[in-house]
């Protein structure tokens, strides 16, 4: 739960041309998770609110921003101290590097990118946060 900063992602239409992207995860009383994505496009703040369901599989959420259509968000790698995560889905077209801080040391970023490469992701397509 809490705030995560997007440090890198693959291009997709719902975040295209956005900068300063972050996500807030909030556990609701009914056990679901509210997901609020915030980013800047054309100098204006844009927000998208979705919901997530936990699953029986550790590290997997089912997230929906579009009515009843859910996607899997899988934590594939995580720092021992929980400071960063590598998130993917069932599709190799979705990949995010998220951090509790707005930036990470270059050596840490390279390590995470290498982990993604070893999992078969086309890391040359990553868009790094500005």
Assign the CATH architecture: Beta Barrel
Q: Rounded to an integer, what's the Rg over CA atoms?
A: 14 Å
Largest sheet: 8 strands, antiparallel, barrel
Give helix and strand order, one letter per element, not per position: EEEEEEEEHE
What is the number of domains? 1
CATH top level class name: Mainly Beta
Low-confidence sequence ranges: none
Termini separation comes to 24 Å
**Given the helix and strand composition, which structural class is it?**
mainly beta
User: What is the overall shape?
Assistant: globular
Strand arrangement within the widest β-sheet reads 1-2-3-4-5-6-7-8
- From the 3D structure, determine the CATH topology: Lipocalin
Percent of sequence in beta strands: over 45%
Count of β-strands: 9
How many DSSP H or I helices?
Answer: 1
Overall helicity:
10-25%
Description of the molecule:
The protein is mainly beta. It has a single domain (2-128), classed as Calycin beta-barrel core domain (Lipocalin). It has 1 helix and 9 strands. The chain has one helix spanning 106-118, and strands at 2-9, 19-27, 33-41, 44-54, 60-66, 69-78, 84-88, 95-99, 127-128. It has an 8-stranded antiparallel β-barrel. The relative contact order is 0.22.
């Amino acid at each position: 739960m809490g705030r995560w900063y997007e440090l890198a992602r693959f291009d997709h239409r719902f975040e295209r041309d956005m900068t300063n992207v972050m996500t807030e995860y909030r556990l609701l009383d009914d056990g679901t998770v509210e997901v609020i994505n915030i980013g800047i496009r054309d100098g204006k703040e844009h927000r998208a609110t979705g919901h997530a369901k936990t699953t029986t599989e550790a590290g997997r959420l089912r997230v929906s921003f579009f009515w009843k259509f859910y996607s899997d968000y899988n934590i594939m790698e995580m720092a021992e101290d929980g400071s960063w995560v590598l998130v993917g889905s069932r599709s190799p077209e979705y990949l995010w590097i998220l951090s509790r801080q707005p930036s990470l040391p270059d050596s840490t970023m390279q390590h995470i990118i290498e982990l993604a490469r070893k999992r078969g992701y086309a890391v040359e397509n990553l868009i790094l946060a500005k």
